[in-house]
Specification:
Number of helices: 2
Strand content: 15-25%
Order of helices and strands: EEHEEH
Radius of gyration: 14 Å
Length: about 80
């Protein structure tokens, strides 16, 4: 389980492993695919909900790099998929 601390902006930040980058890539693909499939069967908007997502920012333990968390990844990916 990852540890949560407070970031420089005062908001929660989780400490995660480097594998999180692969998880986020899979999440991006899932959101895009799920959105395309839902559009074939419904004319209403749908929302992706991840009950186990962490906060909006994370720090990779091995490198100290600050990255977006799962909720931010899903939201940004979903917004890119919206028709213009």
């Amino acid at each position: 389980m990852s540890d949560t601390s407070i970031g420089e902006d005062g908001l929660p930040v989780t400490s995660v492993g480097a594998w999180t980058l692969e998880k986020h890539e899979r999440l991006r693909r899932y959101v895009g695919i799920a959105r395309a499939v839902r559009q074939k069967f419904t004319r209403t908007e749908a929302t992706y909900i991840d009950l186990y997502c962490g906060p909006g920012r994370s720090v990779i333990e091995e490198t100290g790099e600050t990255i977006d968390g799962s909720p931010v990844i899903a939201a940004r990916t979903g917004m890119r998929a919206l028709p213009r």
